[in-house]
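Instructor's aside before we start: the two examples that follow are unrelated to each other. I chose them only because their records fit on one page, so don't look for a connection. First example below.
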Amino acid sequence: MHITEKDKEAFKNSTMTTNQVIAFLEHLDHCSFCLQELAENEEKHSSVSAPAYLKHQILNAASSPEIQASKAVRNTSYRMQRILYSLRTTAGLIMALFLLFSIGQVDFSTLSPALPKSQSKQTAVNRPSPNYLDDFSQQFNRSLSAGTNNFIKSLNEFFK
């Protein structure tokens, strides 16, 4: 059942009880016909109107330099956020591809030197030779370079 004119007037004059207001608003929530009718009725019988000077004030305020500057900053800020996000995403993607193609070429078993059989039976902590880090870094660098070269070759072949 739809809302009556008596209910609309009581709501407009605030003479309804709390339970009646709740029931009224619940009905409006579920019945778009009554809601539309109430809105049209309010437009027709509205006694409150905006002052005549308000439109002029709003247009002047909207065209003021501080409002325009604020709008430009907000738009620029949004664009910069999008650009920075895309740059971070691109950098992450490039690093992931680089690692994918370069690490896949590295044979980690060849990077650590094998211990002689006489040393492997000792229980004491073995210290690597002074050149161990140098040898390891050179081998790793060669493997990384080879992986990078393979990656670049793959890209060149892909884009040809």
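Example two begins here.
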Amino acid sequence: MQKNTKKLLNIFFVLIVISLTIYGLFANLDLDSFVDSFSGINWIYCALSVPVALLSHLVRALRWRLYVNPIKKDVSLFNLFSAVMVGYAVNNWTPRGGELVRPYVLARRVNCSKSSLIATIIVERLIDVFFLLLMFCLVFLLSKELILQAFPWLNTNTLTLMGGLVFLVVLCLFLLLTTNIFDNLLNKILRKLSAKWTERIYNIWRAFKLGFETLKTPRDYLYNFLYSCLIWLLYTIPSYLMFFAFDFQNTAHLTIIDAGLLVVVSGIGMSIAPVPGGIGVYHWIAVTCIVNLYPQISTEEALAYATVSHGINLLIQVLAGGLFMLRENIRNVDLKE
């Protein structure tokens, strides 16, 4: 009963967030202008963004193999890509659910520890947070005057404080997972438990910690860096192509730097968005960012851009992910270790 209540509360909260963002977007919108914004779209550029987006997911699978190698050698790229796409598909109907389903799908496919693979997802998220901050710093330096003019509250002091807090959190997690700090704490706590429970918890922790072995391998750092840079570049290119689809590069003289800025800001919002697939939240963030940074672009055009960009990405994840879900027979995935 308590579990069902919690689930209902989560659904209610998600619906409230989506409803509020959609209401905020459409409250003062000129619907005729919004509909007209779709008439001039160059769909060729939209189509060109599809293979680039798929390639970004493939590179993510390549990078994931770095983290999986200490657990299971020579896992095929196709199996990794399959699990990645299943995870993306699941994320579109349950927030972050795909991050749990992905390691279970791969664990069943290659017969290895689920706990260790879950740890690799945490490693991936740490790397993603680090590069999100890195990309934000880069686009801020390249577009500092534009950003401060549109968002005057986003000053250097605010950014330093935010960056410092996130850096401390990432550093603490890194030390926790790559040193024996947690092992020592766990040993002190487990002394009060039975030998049976102690051995069981230690077995789970050892399997879990194996997923962090890549953080102890310096030779993987270069590949990590290159793959991560490539992932963000492949995230940015579709947004840049969509500027051409809406002719923003002429009306507002937008460049690939502007596309990178939009991707980073949207990435931050999507990271904290408690809704499936970022529905509503992504649109609100993208529209707010575009309208404030580029006054030449109307709210209606910005929302049309956000709708098409998000819709294409959603279709890629649902269709490709759905096909791989059939391959993996996702309904029979066992979520028990």
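Residues 332-337 have pLDDT under 50 and may be disordered.
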